[in-house]
What does this fold into?
Amino acid sequence: LEVLLDIPLADTGLKLVSLECGCYQGQETEPQLLNLQVFTSEKGWMCICHSIAPINPGEVTYSVFFLHKGYSKTYTVALERMDPLQVKDLLFLNLDYYVAVFLPGHFLHLVNAQFPDLMSGDFFLTGEDAKINGLHESTIVSPLKSAVLDLSTGSLFTLEINKQALLQFLWKSKLDGERLATLHCLLLHVGSTAELETEIIKWISENVSTCFTFDPIQEFIIASLYWRMCPEVSNLDKLLPYTSLVDWKELIPKVTCTTHFMSLPVLKVRCCKVIG
It folds into this structure.
């Protein structure tokens, strides 16, 4: 049995050429290397990520094509200080639940790859909060799920989100969007445990009155139950969302996002005849 996946590149703005990478949208006189990554997950999602040459100084633009959903999102991040040459340092990392977009020294954007339509799941960090500890950040690639390869040393590292750092960020965050994304990340990506739930309940008891655009108690109950039920109920993650905020409209400061629809990939199955 042979299965081919036909991906309509015309909708992505990308093209295939021989011997060298094609450029994004348009014909340049000089070929440019394309920062492009393709990620897949056992959960059933597939994404193409690539960065786009900046049009305005002080901005970084990148796109994530959610092939399993039939649309893409293009993000533009406004930065206060940036050397144009730093754009080439933009990294795409596969964290299984998230696609991480990392520009060393500037930001770390965790894009919810499994449920990209739920904007409440996107997690955007800047400054000291946006760090990958222990690595030469300009020389790493993501060849495997939740792993990075340090090209300067040849070492392969497991990549995971620090639970204690997330809890500290939850306590100091003032924006509802950051609080909600942190809450979902803790309960669904890090994993809901009795110890973690106790810490989150402490935070809720002191901050429930300062959350104006969502109910932290409701979100805590739904996400915790969702984490427990997913291993027991087949394909629950494909049928039900993990949040009640399916129409979340809160914007990430200094980040603009546009959505473009595209054709879904087509599976072509070829049956081979067995002679015997």
Notes: The longest strand covers residues 59-66.
